[in-house]
Amino acid sequence: MIRRLLPVVTLGLLLVPALSAQGAFIVRLGADTLSLEQYTRTADRLAGEQVARAPRTVHRLYTATFGRSGAIERFELVEHNVSGAPGPAETKATVELAGDSAISAVPDGDSTLHRRVKVAPGTVPWYFQNYALLEEITRRARAGGGERYTTALLNLGDAEPWTVEVNRLGRDSMTMILGPLGTFRLRVDEHGSLLGLSGIGTTMQVTVERVRGKLDLGALSKAFAARSLGTLSPADSVRATLAGANLAVHYSRPSMRGRAIFGNVVPWNTVWRTGANEATVLETSADLVIAGTSLPAGKYSLWSVPSPDGWKLIVNNNTGQWGTQYDAKHDFARLDMKVERLARPVEQFTIAIEPRSDGQGGVLALEWERTRAWVPLSRK
Fold it and tell me: Does residue 9 lie within any of the structural domains?
């Protein structure tokens, strides 16, 4: 039950007490350590550093400066390329917040992108995988004392802020709806300090744990320099010819990384992007019959609904969207898939177009973990 909904402008800006705190986080994607972060917080300053390993290893230094109201007035991020991968050795991004404006300067290839964005007072600047800044939001939510708290977050370089909603679940639990990324589950202490976070089922899929002690991130950045994780879900394409029809699927390929996938990373009975990143796309140069349904030549996005009781393949007329932007009103068809259990696990998600030996038909197959789901294809 919601007891009250306090304004974005005031909640947390006047109620969060002055503090002196420090903390450190380890961020994992399955069995892989994705990044390490530590920070120091005083009444007027948040300063921290981070080592991140994807796609290349970088060492980041960041500083947020707070005004008298408690809102962030300036944010600076300096990133050093320590892996030797192609790209600049150092980049710098800044955000200045005053009144209803955020003025940012962020790297954009070989130049700098300057942007002014209209924001609400109290908006928190952010970049992906920074958890000290998310802790600023959980502390404000805890200090407000209500069941629900909303604010705004501006991801570096974006033209519009995201809405963030925090809901209290008990003394030590919250959920955070973080713009388009999804709903995260958080553990916090009585001050709202972040103890742990689960993004399983969101587009980030990470777990975060608060750790004790001081990290030597300078040494860790050197240790990780030659152990970058690369692109976490690389783009790929599969092409085939079926009875003279040219077919192609363009998709991104996440990996298991020691995780249970279906029913966990990919929830049951929920529309899945069938890959990662942008929506998966099927192109055909000729009319097809797919799982008994006629499909005209053209371009479509592919989605799926995994379930313990059977899978559905969704063929949608929209293409070019991000993989969280599914719109059912543009569905062309929902098709039953045949499902098989594989003898050996498939580490990296794979889509295959498999023509029959006679060249007149075939299957479109999805394989990941120990699951193979497929539909028959033929030229119409």
Answer: no
Are residues 256 and 354 located together in one domain of the fold?
A: yes
pLDDT digits (tens, 9 = 90+) for 215-268: 999 899 889 998 999 999 999 999 999 999 999 999 999 999 999 999 999 999
Total domains, the chain: 2
249 found inside a domain: yes
Any domain includes 2: no
Per-residue pLDDT tens digits for 129-185: 999 999 999 999 999 989 999 999 999 999 999 999 999 998 899 999 999 899 999
**Distance set, CA 268 to CA 152, 263, 264, 271, 337 (Å):** 31, 5, 8, 9, 15
Q: Report pTM.
A: 0.88
Mapping DSSP onto H, E and C, the string for the chain reads CCCCECCCCCCCCCCCCCCCEEEEEEEEECCEEEEEEEEEECCCEEEEEEEECCCCCEEEEEEEEECCCCCEEEEEEEEEECCCCCCCCEEEEEEEEECCEEEEEEEECCEEEEEEEECCCCCEEECCCCHHHHHHHHHHHHHHCCCEEEEEEEECCCCCCEEEEEEECCCCEEEEEEHHHCEEEEEECCCCCEEEEECCCCCCCCEEEEECCCCCHHHHHHHHCCCCCCCCCCEEEEEEEECCEEEEEEEECCECCCCCCECCCECCCCCECCCCCECEEEEECCCEEECCEEECCEEEEEEEECCCCCEEEEEECCCCCECCCCCHHHEEEEEEEEEEEEEEEEEEEEEEEEECCCCCEEEEEEEEEEEEEEEEEEEC
Preceding omega of 55 cis (within 30 degrees of 0): yes
CA gap 279, 48 in Å, rounded: 35
What residue numbers bound the domain in which 61 lies? 21-223
Residue 286 placed within a domain: yes
- pLDDT of the residue at 53: 95
Q: Does position 332 have pLDDT exceeding 60, yes or no?
A: yes
Both 211 and 294 in a single domain? no
